[in-house]
Amino acid sequence: MKKSTRPLPARGGYRPNATVRLVRAGHEYFNLLDKLIHEAHDSIHLQTYIFEPDETGTRVAKALIQAAKRGVKVYVIVDGYASQKLSKDFIRVLREAGIYFRFFAAYFKSKHFYFGRRLHHKVFVVDGRYSLVGGINIGNHYNDTAHNVAWIDWAVYCDGDISARLRKICEARVQGKGRRSFVRHTMLEIQQKNKPVILARPRINDWVRRKREITKSYLEMFRHAEDSIYMMSSYFLPGNLLLKNIAAAAKRGVKIKVIVAGISDVALAKYAERYMYGWFLRHGVEIWEYQRKVLHAKLSTYDGQWVTIGSYNINNISAYASVELNIDIYNEGFARDVERRLKRIMELECVQITPELYTKKQTLWERFLQRSAYDIFRILLFLFTFYFKQRD
User: Fold this and answer.
1) Fewer Cβ close by (within 10 Å): the C or N end of the chain?
2) Which of 41, 141, 61, 143 is nearest to 101 (CA)?
3) Collapsing DSSP states into helix, strand and coil, what is residue 360?
């Protein structure tokens, strides 16, 4: 692979961090989450889309309660629509332990009355020093249990300046503010310890607050890549702007490989996605379907230099309707490791959808279902995003 000669795009916002590590859903993620909760001294922020009252959710809740009882300030915000299974008793126990708990406004109940807006980001911050950001919700689907193997998903663990910045983002959400300020004390701490550093920055999409940072990161990736792009994406339905940039990158010779769900938890989205396979194949984009479990990941890398990971799905719901959070990481060692992992997954756990295989599977009935799902999905996207676009 040739090394890119382009300068790092949009240098603004990157700060040094002592440690940045990719963490997979399942035991690896939830064991680390437990460890960080138990070692917290000052504060914990947990903001997530789904918090299930199942085995995994109960385990996390107990750990948070223990932290609160020893004097740690614990703040939890969950999406009011996706986490509505939480009972009043479950929430009461959290609050009685001294935990700040709040639902992000459910559909039709927002102060702004924006239909479809949801808190889709997944962020966890301890003491403003350690953090986890990714696509992993709190629930058995994302964990390895006696009866379940985790869906494939990822988070990034950070030790350093970005965690202090993430705490400020979480504090602003707790206070109901759209603006955020950043503290930088951990930068000095890293310099004093003389640790190697990795550049990283938080990126937010929130159309209501006029933030399109993650979308811009993806546009930068498509425009700056010179050799290769790898994407692992659930619900992969890029809007027209991203499609245009994908086509342009492929046309100038960038090898684009996308890992998508072979097994999906949303059948409508999968049928709509498969309708787009023909377009991707015509433009030279490789499509690989993951076979072992549901794919829920949102992860991309290019030229072995740069990675973005978080809650952002490559579709217009994430672009225009949800509160999303990603971390952009600029570091060759980290990016090469991510790329190696994705290649290994493609080799061992995926099936490539070649033009021949795609044509072979396209019966008239399948084509009808895919086109119908695609049209329905476009209508739903329109309903979710029309009002936001009109206000832009």
Assistant:
1) C
2) 61
3) helix
Cα separations (Å) of 323 from 152, 245, 317, 343, 391?
Answer: 22, 23, 10, 30, 17
Cα–Cα distances (Å) from 269 to 199, 228, 250, in that order, read 34, 26, 24
Nearest-angstrom CA–CA distance, 24 and 136: 9
Query: Over the stretch 3-61, which tens digit does the pLDDT of each residue have?
Result: 555 555 445 789 888 899 999 999 999 999 999 999 999 999 999 999 999 999 999 99
Global pTM reads 0.88
Strand partners for 259 = 232, 288
Which residues are CB-contacts of 390 (< 8 A; sequence separation ≥ 6)? Answer: none
Could you tell me the two tokens for 196? 């190697």
CB burial of 177-187 (b: ≥16 within 10 Å; e: otherwise) equals eeebeeeeebb
- Give the span between the Cα atoms of 280 and 366, in whole angstroms: 18
